[in-house]
From TrEMBL:
GO terms for biological process: chloroplast RNA processing; RNA modification. This is Pentatricopeptide repeat-containing protein At2g33760. Belongs to the PPR family. PCMP-H subfamily. PPR repeats lie at residues 179-213, 249-279, 280-314, 315-350. It comes from the Eukaryota. It comes from Theobroma cacao.
Amino acid sequence: MEAKQLHRAPPSSHSPAYCAILRAGPRLKPLQQVHARIVITGLGRSQSLITKLLSFACAATSPVCYTRRLFLSISKPDTFLFHSLITLTSKFNFPLESLVYHRRMISANISPSNYTFSAVVKCCADLMAFNIGKTVHCHVLSCGYSLDSYVQAALVSFYAKSGDLGVARKVFDKMPEKTVVAWNSMISGYEQNGFGKEAIGLFYLMQDSGVKPDSTTFVCLLSACAQLGAAGLGCWVHEYIVRNCFDVNVVLGTALINMYSRCGNVSKAREAFDSMEEKNVVAWTAMISGYGMHGHGSQAIELFSEMRVHGPRPNNVTFVAILSACAHAGLVNEGRQIFASMRQQYGLMPSVEHHVCVVDMLGRAGHLHEAYQFIISVIPEEPAPAVWTAMLGACKMHKNFDLGVEVAEHLLSIEPENPGHYVMLSNIYALAGRMDRVEKVRNVMIRNRLKKEVGYSTIDIDQKICLFSMGDKSHPETNKIYLYLDELMSRCREAGYTPASESVMHEVEEEEREHALRYHSEKLAIAFGLLKTSSGVAIRIVKNLRMCEDCHTAIKFISIVTNREISVRDRLRFHLFKDGSCSCQDYW
């Protein structure tokens, strides 16, 4: 009778069994021992005790099998137990288990709560289980939770992670009250899917709505600024963080490093790095990468050496960053040694990214034979297309047309649908004077409906991002921009500039090439920046593709005739133009 009475009346938080669970904490073996004592004393069916056991079991090491056994020991699990299991397994990163318990909950005809739905939707996002997530969304609607702020925030995050930003924005716009979590989810969704301009625009709407940003907001916003090169807004965010005494933790600090590095201010990135009280491997790697993209190979190696002595253990991403820095600075011997140390000193197996960096490093330095031998001898499996692409770029750079054609044709056999390979092959044939082959490549692209990636450039003027593409006439001040650019290029010609017509893909006639070159996106963005800023203000441009040779030459002359410092970040690195020279020293 005494045991039955204990079962009927749930133990209080001061009962011996409950206290024993608390003492065991999130440790699997002590929990199992307490569980055994609970069963022996007749308390094995107390749902409050089992739920508390489950809460600690989910936080313990390898809890999945044990939590399942605990769950199966209960004959009739109730709503609270299901909710606890789903939210706990979601919280402790066991999303598949959450979905399993959710399915059991539905089978038992128990309706989920808004918190349960929020956890399940989050798990669908974590698992990229988009079809299941859409089914859960239908269930949300049928259960009447379509306007619940927690569920809506989870759905916004789910659709944003799935890349379905249209639906994410529809759910977001329908929210009667938008929490900071919902705003963060939508801003993050835009940023992570490459829509940095939309992310920044949404942040301005967030400000207008009166919702105060938190550190997560600023991490997302700084990433969007880094993506677009929005230095003005990025600096404002940093000032806001300092002014409002935000805790600059390792995540926020790393976001600042990335923002300053990718916006062209590597010295401010180093200041942010040095000011961080805690630095993990991600922060160190971000700073090394920042030095690398600016061509500061020696500083990158110096910081890497400091990291090996005083910092955390380098990981695979760190080695990609330092090898890339060596490639962009021509530090071949140092790069060889660092690559060898990956396996010898750290036991890390090189991946595709490391192989690409080594081939790029050797190829840029003119060691084409060594790069080719590395590909066919050192790489254990069939080299990835990215490795051959790096080799092809080196062949074009050093005008080794025979090897370049061989590599390009091999690439086309691996990736016949990649238009970039055809463009590169066409340019190599053109540089070699094989115009008959250029025509054949063009015809193949037309027949297969392949188009080269559209290039665009952005510039940040007064915290507003303006985007230009080649020959773009969508800007309201187009006529003024074009007139100014024509005048600017005439001044450059007088200073000695000659257009490099081979920079244009050879589908246009010779007399059309100079016209096509003049209105490349980076030239339009620079012209607009010069019109809109005062004398002496540096111009900062972001290009989504690699800058062409003609633009690289032209911007040197623009920096002379305007007496301006011009920074261009292309797909590969930063170029700082000043007084007719570039920081890359034409090694790019």
